[in-house]
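User: Run a structure prediction on this.
Assistant: Running it now.
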Amino acid sequence: MKKFYNVSVLLLSAVSIFLALLDISNVININNPPFIYIDKSILVIFWIDYIVRFYKSDNKLRFFKENIFDLLAIIPFDSIFYFFRAFRVLRLIKLLRLIRIIGFAGKIQKNIKRFFKTNGFIYLIIITVILVLLGAEIYSVAESASYMDSLWWAIATTTTVGYGDISPHTEVGRFVAIVLMILGIGLIGSVTSTVTAYFVEENKDEEKSNVENELQELKNQVKLLNDYIRKGK
């Protein structure tokens, strides 16, 4: 159940961030169908989630302090600042959506950090970025191509897409291509294993927590039994 919850939070947060970025970039208008329905539905879901968790929390003040990003993510800026639309300050509303992006980013940062730390995946990402940038530079010099074209080729090669619009003709360029292709295959395999390990580790943590709760409950029952025996004597 916890695994399903975490995955749902990640997916819904990612969709909300993506829509907000497209709206800020004027690619879409988030206030038009079907985007407004998607955005409002996600907002309602996270409102319900926040209220339920707040109600169940033992320390309300601590919950509030630890979930500031969650609160920022669910503030309905469009409704609050609807009055200002009459004064043509739509840009202000679009800028305020950045706060929601920050809120959702903060909401999922713990899961993201934990994911990248699994199996040392963060180090593989860093190495991959360095090798892609370095490979693009070497390709640019060897093939006498612009760096942006070389970077495009390096990314396409590493992701094993290989559009074929740009291809190496020199021995150095082909060697770089081989390195990036092997790196890309390893990266894809690592992503799969990291996702698997992430959820396995999460299940172990959940099982450990359940065992600890059961042990604590047993201790409480033993203590009550001892107290009853003592009173009987």
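The chain is about 80% helix and 0% strand.
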